[in-house]
Amino acid sequence: MATELPDIPKLHEALQLATLKCSERCVYQGAKWAAELLTSMAPLPATPTGELPPAYLHPLSTNKTEAALEAQEFSQYLLAKSYFDVKEYDRCSHVLEKCLSRKAVFLHLYSKYIAGEKRKDEASEMVLGPLDGAGTQNKEISYIMSVLQPKVDRKDGEKLSEDESFLAWLYGICLLKQKNETAARDALISSVIAYPYNWSAWQDLASTVDSLQDLNNILQRLPNNIMSNLFVLSTNQELYQTTEPIHSQLTDLLVIFPTSSWLKTQRALLYYHARDFEEADQIFDSLLAVDPYRLDYLDHYSNILYVMERRPKLGFIAQLALTTDRFRPETNCVVGNFYSLKSEHEKAVQCFRRALTLDKTCLSAWTLMGHEYVEMKNTHAAIEAYRRAVDINRKDYRAWYGLGLSYEVLEMHYYALFYFQRAAALRPYDSQMWQAMGQCYDRMNRPSEAIRSFKRALVTLNKSPSTSKDEPEARSFDPQILHQIAIMYEKLRQSKEAAKWMEACMAEEENVGVTTVTGQARMWLARWAFVNQNWARAQELANLLCQDGQEVEEAKALVRDLRSRGLEVA
Amino acid sequence: MSRYLTPGKIALLILVKLYAESRFPNAAVAPVVSFIIKHLVRPKDTSTFILSLDQIKDVTIGQPCTIVGRTLFDLLLSDMWQMDSFDALHTFFTETQDLLRDPEKEEHHGKDGKHVKRRFIGPTSILGCFIRRANLEFAKLQFHETHALWCSFVRFREPTLPAWRKRKSGAGIMSFDVNLKRMSPNDLLVKKVYGGLIESNKEWTVSTDDVERLLEFQVETMQRLGTRVPDETQHQLKQMLDTDVPVSHLRHYVNFLNAWRSGDYPSSFDCLHRYFDYTMHSRDRTFYQYALLNLAILQADFGCHRESVLAMQETINTARENKDMACLNFALSWLYHFHRAHPQDCPDVISSRMERESLQFLKAKAKEWSMDHLLSMAYLSEARQILLAGDAVPSAFESLLRSGHINMTQQIYNAMGSQILLQSTLWSRLGISHMAGLNCTLFLSKYHEGSPSEDLVVALCRSAYIVSMRGRFDEALDRLEQADPEALRSLKIYQYWASYIGLIKLRRAVYRNEFSAANLLLQQLTSSEQVEPDCALEISIARIELQMRTNNYVSAMVHCNQITAELLRDRADSYHRVRLMILKAEIMARSGRPLAGISTAVSAASIAWKARFLPVLFYAFSVLATIMVDLGLFGAGYELLDCIMPQVLECEDAYLTAQCFAVLADSQVGMASKKQGLAKTECLGRALGLIDRAFTEYTRLQDVHSQKIMMSKKIRIHDYLGDKAMRDECVKQYKGVERGPRQGVESGPSPFRERYR
């Protein structure tokens, strides 16, 4: 996608307006995002008049009739908004029932939607309880849809007005809730075309994108706007694309928004997906130093620290999050991760449950809870947790992978295979997925497929687009995989091929040193040499094995055997 | 908010760990471990509730450790500062669990790595329990609670930073958290996480457990000693409550006890109800009987006797229902004593039952459930009952000894007071007031620790009274002034003490013929409602004496009859009844009806002799002798008294002695009237000697009126004998007596001046 430098003062104004418009319509997350982005830009030189932008406060619609309607319903709107602000959603909705302006209609329906969501949460009761799940629905959606459909659905492809874009967004959300993704995508695209500065709409659009292919498909239909760039960037990040062009795109964007913590976080997440934890850690660290009150994406940071096993740091981050807000899902995820690292899985589950009580759509909490249930050997609960994670976001490869692992524990390999495939599709360059798939094939007695999977795992290891050059694993092969490939060949009774892979496995000793696997490979080779009556080689390998390693006894037996045979040969 | 863990406890845990790892030599083990244990077991004094770093430092800084040149405090410091992050705190607690594993077995398993010499701490030992409890409590903590604990630990450790910097180079102001390296205290992040640290007050330095321990200790002390909350503890408690720890409901109970002792009936009632309201949900109805028990005692203390009996009956019923034998027996014993003290307030059903079998029942039950305290008390009650009924003294002694034996062998220290006091009463009834006084002194000097303060004050009053009987009023009052002011904060005790002071002053005023002062004192004493029965009787007797002195024989007689009737109604102590009989006889004798008095006196004397109420018996004799002298039976009167004089002197009752001497003198004079010549002079000379001795005794009492009578008698005898010089001398003395009451024999420095405490 072409990145052209937009007009900075205009962008400023657009973002200011976006913030105001969003917060006018009580779309607070969007307003927050826009305002953050706004302040991350280099400040404009002071305007000579020093006045506030003309559209300050209630920016009227550009459409004349709309503006007139808005002015007419202004008092009702104000009342409704104040109701919304004190969380009396139904009342807010009721006040605006008869209003006609688009803004009022939006707020009327949006507050209805929020009220429905709230009721749904209340009805679903306990996390993972009997009522929690697909059975409990937002009951307001059908009404909202029936109101919106005539207003938004344009068969003739006519462009929506700016005011209608919010309605289209709401329509898209409702369609999403009904799992009608193509229609939702259309509605959302029409919404962002009509008004590109509503980030919430972009986010919901991103959630409809399941693969790179999808992204490429919709790319043409997106408006030529800086927001599209941001969208593409974040969607790529969510799709685990960590290639160089994305990094450069990010760098370009950072020129416009030099201090944007959101963009920096995207960068950190890119590093995280590329398994470059040090870099990611540093970015997050610097972000925290600037704004210690920021809790967004802290759960991802805690995942990074978890993988790095930096317990003191993770504990500190947990403390930090705690002092900001105990009742944020992010905080609870961080604390849960801390407990998990301390092997206190019950407490960790408790924390994740709390996070989910606060926000049922907290993706990382579902996935992490699944992990904890696996640790606690509660496979069924784990499967359910992973399933919920996947339901919320199909792009979470960890949940797919976790599902596969859980089914493997339950010895349901065919199921497991499916999930591993999904995980591998999301992370085609992650050897772990392929390995797991290979093992699964192995269990199902399909060695040739297993070999292909393992070989793929080897390839990914080498082709991994890792930015740091000094990682030793990047250049070498994992002896474990080599060994497994060899065993697969053995199963296929292709001993020569197997021996070749065993040799390769043994050769890895140069890189990774002597391990159990290479020892096993050596033993295998020794025995193979023995069978092929290559006594000298067998002797040599067995003697090496006798020095140390796990197979000492076996090796000694082999040596004895060799000796006796050696006498015969002599 | 903390249930159990505090930074101090963490420091203790570190010390336990150091001990388990044998990081200090054997010489240091005893002081350090006993310091640790002092803070874990039931508290003995008030010093163990708030554990500060200074206390730990004081104990550890002098102790050597296995590293040469370092003290134990250094080790503690380094261990404390090695906990350099929130995570390290977790790790520390996890590691302490290893201390409970047997190192021998671990070796068997072949634990790789270096071998650490370690003591084995048994999981059931005090230290083991402490480690387990601490771990459990730590596991129970929510994340934010753990965070708060960590922050308070950081604050707790803060003052040792200079010491730690001396020992470790590179330690800086931010070394309390390893994550804060290369940061300054003004960094946003640091302020965010530890910002509130500096300003916030001492939250978390105490835990609920600490407060509960303090409260329990306080309740125990109050119940054992019957005192109020000392100011120091109250201060500590307030300090603890200021830190917003969730405090157990025991606080209400302490408030209740405090209010009760201070005589604040409404608030004690309120607090008691509040306490039981709050504890109902946690302890169920099983404690209902205790609530009732407390209520009954409370009501009795504030004079609502009928209510109290009803409550106690309910207690007994509930205790029976719940098969709570301890409570039941206590309630029965209490009811028994209550019945003894206030028979008129008990319903007939109870009193009839109490009369017959209750004591036997109590004794049997106490034996059955091996409740030594109750058994000892039952024996004491038995002895008391024997005394009251005027039965055989040896059996009273037997019961007393039984009780004493139980107290000694079972180490029931707080029953010692009642036993010794009863013994003292017994001695004084046998007329050996020296022994009685000695018993009181013994109790005061040897058992004042761990005895209820009520007993102490009673003993003090008793001993002061005995001293006052010898005429040493100032010394008696002096002694009373020495009462522990802490004990006097309790209303009941104060009233008892104050009425004794009033009584002694009253008697002094009566003897000194200061009638207006005496009347005022009487008014004051009788106006207060809560007066112990024995004290009230003494006051009544003093009133009769006063009335006799003012020659108001009619009202004295009326009064006397009235009290006798009351005593009869209450089936009270026969000792007192006899005393009143004698008083009546004396009134009759004084009012010129000696013949009417003689039968009363004789019957009183016979009862007194049967029950061995020796001082009363002597008193009866003196009255009888007076009557005989009045009837002209001088010889018989003289004989009657002369033979008991040694024992009378032993009684050390100055008034009795003086009266006896006066009667003796009178009878000698009477005898002289029947003799002639030398024998007559001899008799008169003897009379003069006796008058002198009576005068001395009266002087002790500062009884001006009697002194004057004695002098005038002496003047007349000298006049009769014609000894003018002596007569003039006596006249001068008489005038001297009349002029100033302070003249004459002043008791020298008393041997009882030493302080008890």
TrEMBL record, chain A:
GO terms for cellular component: anaphase-promoting complex. It comes from Pyronema omphalodes (strain CBS 100304) (Pyronema confluens). SMART domains: TPR. Gene3D superfamilies: Tetratricopeptide repeat domain. SUPFAM superfamilies: TPR-like. The keyword Cell division applies. One of its GO terms (biological process) is cell division. Pfam families: ANAPC8 (PF04049), TPR_11 (PF13414), TPR_7 (PF13176), TPR_8 (PF13181). It comes from the Eukaryota. TPR repeats lie at residues 261-294, 329-362, 363-396, 397-430, 431-464. Keywords: Cell cycle, Cell division, Mitosis, Repeat, TPR repeat, Ubl conjugation pathway. The keyword Cell division applies. This is Similar to Anaphase-promoting complex subunit 8 acc. no. O94556. Residues 11-268 form the Cdc23 domain.
UniProtKB/TrEMBL annotation, chain B:
One of its GO terms (biological process) is anaphase-promoting complex-dependent catabolic process. GO terms for cellular component: anaphase-promoting complex. The chain crosses the membrane at residues 616-638. Residues 252-341 form the Anaphase-promoting complex subunit domain. It comes from the Eukaryota. Keywords: Cell cycle, Cell division, Membrane, Mitosis, Transmembrane, Transmembrane helix, Ubl conjugation pathway. Signal peptide: none annotated. The keyword Transmembrane helix applies. The keyword Cell division applies. Residues 738-757 are annotated as: Disordered. InterPro entries: Apc5, Apc5_dom. Belongs to the APC5 family. This is Anaphase-promoting complex subunit 5. It comes from Pyronema omphalodes (strain CBS 100304).
